């Protein structure tokens, strides 16, 4: 997972609930020196809390992604809210989103870099 | 992967190669140098129902004991049975240097607690435990069945006692009811019935490390939390001046990646707030006992007072009336006009 374009990560979950599964595994996917480049805030909620588990990601271009995992009424399984979908958000979905955004930002940077290079080359020729 | 444990050191029966047990490709290449020791004379002569047909060291197991996973399972069951206080942490990609720094700081803090306790209580009354408190990274997928076995497998068969003979014999040596060890079929069957039942199960995903204490000692918990999960005012982190090693970049970076999740104390499951409550108990376990005794004594006195109150009130009323009558009769004798007000007028009425 390319986390070079991540600037902030905020998460809160109740570890005694199955809803904490995805945020906890996402934290594990971060690189070793993540805390140096990403502002990470992690909170462990009490066991009896009714607050859904949350994960907020902030990127370099200002884009933010928010994910929630609320416990279902039956207490079994997890109902997550991801924009308009009713299926719970899986770790693979989040990873894919982060990768996709990283690719887009990477491409933008590359184009800007080439544009700079192009201008420089023109100046030299002149 | 081939088993790491050298099989020549174990004496395994040849039936371990039976086709009924699945063995993966790598394991099939691992051969066992197996010989069953010949039965002793006493075994031949006294044929009890539970004849020792297999080695004490490696009795028939549901899981092959040659694998690291099986030995880890035994280790974790032993850990869970011997450590009444376990705090669980999630560790996210800590470097070896960060681990070393954190363990060093933790050891120093716990050592200080031991020194204080030894000074206060003396070496006869106190056994130092800081050497036995360890922060271990665990294999979560083996810790989970170990927890199930510890919690739910309570064998009634006592080692050494004769087991009633099975009427039709047993078809497989692994089903022998006298086998009660961690890797036995009996343990596996019981544990398998209780999947996802323990409240600690949702915690057991992802990378976990456990801090194990050989006894429930709130003072040590407080010291450990001040290092690993500080929170003012009860668990303040050491200051830069007092402990410069704590504020090194390696330690600080490592601590950012450690997250306390919960604890298992005396079989009970606690969350982070519960752990902080246990750490905040003043005076340790002895202090808690003293508080309990004081409370019970006070409670006893209160009960006695309440029960006595009714009869005491009645006595007071009657006594007051008696005195009033006495005082009334004495002025009549003395022919004194002084009015005597019952000094003991009862404000309380008998309820």
UniProtKB/TrEMBL annotation, chain A:
<comment type="similarity">
    <text>Belongs to the mitochondrion-specific ribosomal protein mL53 family.</text>
</comment>
<dbReference type="InterPro" id="IPR019716">
    <property type="entry name" value="Ribosomal_mL53"/>
</dbReference>
<keyword id="KW-0496">Mitochondrion</keyword>
<keyword id="KW-0687">Ribonucleoprotein</keyword>
<keyword id="KW-0689">Ribosomal protein</keyword>
<protein>
    <recommendedName>
        <fullName>Large ribosomal subunit protein mL53</fullName>
    </recommendedName>
</protein>
<dbReference type="InterPro" id="IPR042776">
    <property type="entry name" value="Ribosomal_mL53_fung"/>
</dbReference>
<dbReference type="Pfam" id="PF10780">
    <property type="entry name" value="MRP_L53"/>
</dbReference>
Automatic annotation (TrEMBL), chain B:
<feature type="region of interest" description="Disordered">
    <location>
        <begin position="324"/>
        <end position="351"/>
    </location>
</feature>
<feature type="region of interest" description="Disordered">
    <location>
        <begin position="41"/>
        <end position="65"/>
    </location>
</feature>
<dbReference type="InterPro" id="IPR043141">
    <property type="entry name" value="Ribosomal_uL10-like_sf"/>
</dbReference>
<feature type="compositionally biased region" description="Polar residues">
    <location>
        <begin position="41"/>
        <end position="59"/>
    </location>
</feature>
<dbReference type="InterPro" id="IPR047865">
    <property type="entry name" value="Ribosomal_uL10_bac_type"/>
</dbReference>
<feature type="compositionally biased region" description="Basic and acidic residues">
    <location>
        <begin position="324"/>
        <end position="336"/>
    </location>
</feature>
<protein>
    <recommendedName>
        <fullName>Ribosomal protein YmL11, mitochondrial</fullName>
    </recommendedName>
</protein>
<comment type="similarity">
    <text>Belongs to the universal ribosomal protein uL10 family.</text>
</comment>
């Amino acid at each position: 997972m390319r986390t070079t374009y991540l600037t902030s990560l905020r998460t809160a979950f109740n570890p005694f609930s199955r809803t904490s599964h995805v945020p906890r595994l996402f934290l594990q996917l971060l690189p070793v020196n993540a805390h140096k480049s990403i502002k990470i805030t992690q909170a462990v909620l009490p066991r009896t809390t009714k607050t859904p588990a949350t994960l907020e990601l902030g990127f370099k271009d200002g884009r933010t992604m928010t994910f929630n995992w609320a416990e279902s009424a039956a207490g079994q399984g997890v109902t997550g809210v991801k924009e308009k979908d009713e299926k719970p958000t899986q770790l693979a979905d989040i990873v894919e989103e982060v990768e996709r955004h990283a690719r887009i930002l990477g491409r933008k940077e590359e184009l800007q870099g080439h544009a700079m290079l192009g201008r420089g080359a023109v100046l030299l020729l002149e | 992967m081939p088993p790491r444990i050298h099989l020549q050191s174990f004496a395994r029966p040849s039936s371990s190669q039976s086709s009924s047990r699945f063995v993966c490709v790598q394991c099939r290449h691992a051969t066992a140098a197996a010989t069953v020791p010949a039965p002793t004379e006493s075994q031949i002569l006294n044929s009890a129902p539970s004849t020792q047909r297999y080695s004490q060291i490696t009795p028939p197991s549901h899981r092959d004991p040659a694998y690291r996973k099986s030995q880890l399972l035994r280790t974790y069951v032993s850990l869970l049975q011997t450590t009444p206080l376990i705090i669980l942490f999630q560790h996210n990609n800590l470097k070896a240097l960060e681990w070393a720094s954190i363990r060093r700081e933790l050891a120093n803090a716990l050592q200080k607690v031991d020194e204080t306790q030894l000074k206060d209580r003396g070496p006869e009354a106190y056994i130092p435990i800081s050497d036995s408190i360890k922060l271990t990274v665990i294999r979560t997928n083996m810790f989970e069945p170990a927890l199930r076995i510890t919690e739910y497998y309570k064998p009634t068969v006592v080692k050494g006692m004769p087991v009633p003979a099975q009427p039709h014999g047993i078809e497989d040596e692994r089903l022998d009811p006298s086998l009660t060890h961690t890797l036995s079929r009996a343990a596996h069957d019981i544990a398998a019935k209780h999947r996802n039942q323990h409240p600690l199960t949702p915690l057991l995903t992802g990378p976990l490390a456990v801090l194990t204490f050989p006894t429930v000692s709130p003072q040590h918990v407080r010291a450990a939390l001040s290092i690993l999960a500080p929170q003012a005012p009860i668990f303040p982190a050491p200051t830069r001046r007092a402990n410069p090693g704590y504020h090194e970049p390696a330690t600080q970076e490592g601590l950012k990646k450690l997250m306390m999740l919960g604890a298992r104390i005396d079989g009970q499951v606690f969350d982070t707030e519960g752990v902080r409550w246990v750490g905040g108990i003043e005076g340790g376990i002895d202090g808690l006992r003293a508080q309990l005794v004081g409370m019970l004594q006070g409670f006893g006195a209160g009960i006695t007072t309440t029960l006595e109150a009714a009869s005491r009130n009645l006595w007071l009323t009657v006594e007051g009336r008696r005195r009033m009558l006495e005082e009334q009769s004495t002025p009549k004798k003395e022919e004194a006009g002084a009015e005597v007000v019952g000094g003991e007028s009862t404000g309380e009425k008998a309820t």
